[in-house]
Design a protein that fits this description.
This protein has 2 helices and 5 strands; from the N terminus they run βααββββ. With 79 residues, the protein is of the alpha+beta class. Strands 1-5-2 form a 3-stranded antiparallel β-sheet. A two-stranded antiparallel ribbon has the order 3-4. The longest helix is centred in the first third of the chain and has 14 residues. The protein is globular, with a radius of gyration of 14 Å.
């Protein structure tokens, strides 16, 4: 699902949603956000605030809203 990558990051909401879907598909209980956070801390994966890509940015009155979202740093999706 993920691999370590010093330059990579995954937004927390994306990680949670994919993990929840994987758990459901494989008949596992879902994992709480707190449990995910504790496991990431145990693996020394840190939280950052990252800018979303253009596909996630919203426009308001013709201006793009720049917002930073919480993300797990040092991991990326396997391809």
């Amino acid at each position: 699902m993920t691999i370590e990558d010093g330059a990579g990051h995954i937004f927390k909401w994306q990680f949670r949603d994919k993990l929840k879907e994987w758990c459901k598909d494989n008949r596992f209980r879902t994992i709480s956000d707190v449990s995910i956070g504790l496991k990431m801390k145990e693996k020394e994966i840190k939280t950052i605030r990252a800018e979303p890509g253009l596909e996630f940015r919203k426009e308001k009155d013709g201006n793009i809203i720049d917002k930073r979202w919480r993300a797990w740093e040092g991991i990326k999706w396997k391809k």
